[in-house]
Amino acid sequence: MIFVHNHPSGNLKPSNADTELTKKLKAAGQFLDLPVIEHIILNKEDYLSFADERRM
User: Fold this and answer.
1) Residue 21: which domain range?
2) Nearest of 36, 47, 38 to residue 6 by alpha carbon
3) Predicted confidence pLDDT, tens digits, the chain (56 residues)
4) Which CATH number covers residue 17?
5) Is residue 55 part of a domain?
């Protein structure tokens, strides 16, 4: 699975809540045998990939 959400503020830095949510989504995915391979944060002009940042 791939999760995507936006940051309307424009700040692409993941919050602690973003990081914790990613951990919970990965755990749920493992339980359901649905691997979570990516979490992306978008703003109006750019994105941050948790996988590219080695946060997965």
Assistant:
1) 2-49
2) 47
3) 999 999 999 999 999 999 999 999 999 999 999 999 999 999 999 999 999 999 99
4) 3.40.140.10
5) no
How many structural domains compose the chain? Answer: 1
Question: What's the pLDDT at 43?
Answer: 96
Q: Is 56 a domain residue? A: no
Question: What single-letter amino acid sits at 56?
Answer: M
- Give the burial class of 39: count Cβ atoms within 10 A of its Cβ; 0-12 exposed, 13-18 middle, 19 or more buried: buried
DSSP state of 14: P
Against a cut of 0.85, is the pTM above it?
Answer: yes
Q: Cα separation of 35 and 46, whole Å?
A: 25
**The two three-digit tokens of residue 37, written as one number:** 């391979």
pLDDT score at 10? 95
Answer yes or no: is 54 within a domain. no
